[in-house]
Write a structure and sequence with these properties.
Blueprint: E1 2-3, H1 12-25, H2 33-46, E2 51-54, H3 57-68, E3 73-76, H4 82-90, E4 94-97, E5 120-124, H5 135-145, E6 148-152, E7 160-161, E8 164-165, E9 172-176, E10 189-193, H6 196-206, E11 210-212, E12 215-216, H7 227-238, H8 240-258, E13 279-281, H9 285-297, E14 300-301, H10 323-331, E15 332-334, H11 342-356
Parallel strand pairs: 1-14, 3-4, 3-5, 5-6, 6-9
Antiparallel strand pairs: 2-10, 7-8, 9-10, 11-12, 13-15
Helix pairs in contact: 1-7, 2-7, 3-4, 8-11, 9-11
Bound molecules: pyridoxal-5'-phosphate.
Length: 357
């Protein structure tokens, strides 16, 4: 069976040597030396400061809203993984959607101002499939209306926008290190925080709100990354160039094979191409379903990422139909980027489309 993502397992011997160290020290969690080392290395890798590792990308999103300490509405995209929306609602804020650009699949900045009200406190875009949002435009709107910006960069480990890593933008920028991601720590994530004081506060929140061994500074949660996860991250970081090269080859193969058959995502010209996912968009839902069944017959399971459009889920206010997002959701498939299956995947897509068009 071939799924859309294949978990990357780094060098086993290296991972074992980290496990030996953990056994020797007996330090398995609570901001251990490997978490600290990973944080330092990731800050250097991305060229950012104030990066905090957490137990998931979802936690990282919720941290941004906890740190804002505000109420009101957050303008976000309906076309993303559910956490981008659920984190807003979980922190007792109201998600309000602005529709996407049908070519880039990211929130369209031109739709943001229409939904700003006196209750709006933040904008929460997502760099979907690692494609950089129109950051300059979004930041300008945020400045004009005095709003915070929370960027969900979960797919954007390898994205650089205007010569700076994508995580360096916004008041908060978050990333997921879930096992299915290009870079992972089994489970995990990180937040990058612009404000130094809020970064110090986030460290407290991560550990029950403690400000010292016997002191409580604020309301906290337990969102610590453990040492085994950090060890996995350190091993992955050592192999990131191999991972990126493999994906680049897959990506370029698919572009060459499929560009005349399906719609491909338009990449922000101020950023590089991310090799994290390969989404393909068909002319109709029927076409997408035909291709999906043909691939499923071969035990290949692409995913209809992201479905459903988040403006349709039960707990959000239904203010306006997100036409572009709903349309894209119905016609998209993310196909597997594993070197063993790419030729059969692209061949099958082409064969099905030739037959039905
Ligand atoms: C865009 C996006 N945001 C947030 C998350 C949540 O990350 P995690 O699974 O680490 O909680 C994901 C995870 O897949 C994601 O794709």
């Amino acid at each position: 069976m071939t799924y859309v993502t294949k978990i990357y397992m780094p060098n086993k011997e290296k991972f074992k040597s980290y496990i030996d160290k953990i056994y020797e020290s007996g330090w398995i969690t609570n901001n251990g030396p490997l978490v600290q080392e990973l944080e330092k290395k990731l800050q250097k890798h991305f060229g950012v400061k104030n990066l905090l590792c957490l137990s998931s990308g979802t936690d990282a999103l919720q941290f941004a809203y906890k740190l804002m300490e505000t109420t009101g509405e957050v303008i976000t995209t309906p076309f993303t993984f559910i956490s981008t929306t659920s984190a807003i609602a979980a922190e007792k804020l109201t998600p309000v959607f602005a529709d996407i650009d049908p070519k880039t699949y990211n929130i369209n900045p031109d739709n943001i101002e229409d939904v700003i009200t006196d209750k709006t406190c933040a904008i929460a875009p997502c760099h979907v499939f690692g494609n950089a949002c129109e950051i300059e435009k979004i930041d300008k709107i945020a400045q004009k209306y005095n709003l915070k910006v929370v960027y969900d960069a979960s797919h954007a480990f390898d994205t650089v926008y205007k010569n700076r890593h994508i995580l360096s933008y916004g008041d908060f920028s978050i990333i997921s290190f879930h096992g299915t991601k290009m870079f992972h720590t089994i489970e995990g994530g990180a937040i990058v925080i612009k404000d130094d004081a809020l970064y110090e506060k986030a460290k407290m929140i991560r550990e029950y709100g403690k400000s010292g061994p016997d002191e409580v500074g604020t309301i906290g949660v337990n969102a610590k990354m453990n040492e085994f996860e950090a060890a996995m991250g350190l091993c992955m970081l050592d192999e990131i160039d191999i991972i990126l090269n493999e994906r680049k080859t897959s990506y370029e193969f698919y572009v060459k094979e499929l560009k005349d058959y399906v719609q491909l995502q338009s990449i922000n010209p101020d950023a590089n191409k991310s090799y994290s996912y390969f989404p393909v968009v068909f002319q109709s839902e029927e076409e997408m379903k035909e291709v999906r069944s043909a691939l499923n017959e071969l035990d290949i399971f692409p995913r209809q990422y992201f479905f459903p459009s988040l403006d349709t889920i039960p707990y959000v206010e239904k203010r306006k139909i997100m036409t572009n997002s709903q349309d894209l959701c119905s016609r998209i498939l993310v196909i597997p980027m594993h070197s063993k299956v790419e030729p059969i995947v692209s061949k099958t897509i082409k064969e099905v489309l030739k037959k039905i068009r």
